[in-house]
Write a structure and sequence with these properties.
The chain is an all-alpha fold. 51% of the residues lie in helices and 0% in strands.
């Protein structure tokens, strides 16, 4: 990903489960849903949060569930 402000590349390393780790694959999407739920609750409780994270959401909305399903589906 390229930083829209500086033009510098940014990378993230995500290490997935071991092959056949059904426990991880079963919990991963549920944890993502929990993270999204907590973020939505915080958005409602802290009205200043939108302004604080708006720079992070310039290109993409912060949401864990779509990424979790993509990662879990990749071989």
């Amino acid at each position: 990903m390229i930083d829209v402000l500086t033009g510098e590349p940014h990378w993230a390393l995500v290490e997935g489960p071991e092959p056949g780790d059904a426990g991880f694959l079963g919990h991963w999407p549920l944890a993502a849903v929990d993270a999204d739920t907590v973020l939505e609750q915080q958005r409602k409780q802290n009205l200043g949060l939108e302004e604080q994270i708006s720079r992070l959401e310039v290109v993409y909305e912060i949401s864990s569930s779509p990424a979790a399903t993509r990662f879990a589906g990749d071989p």
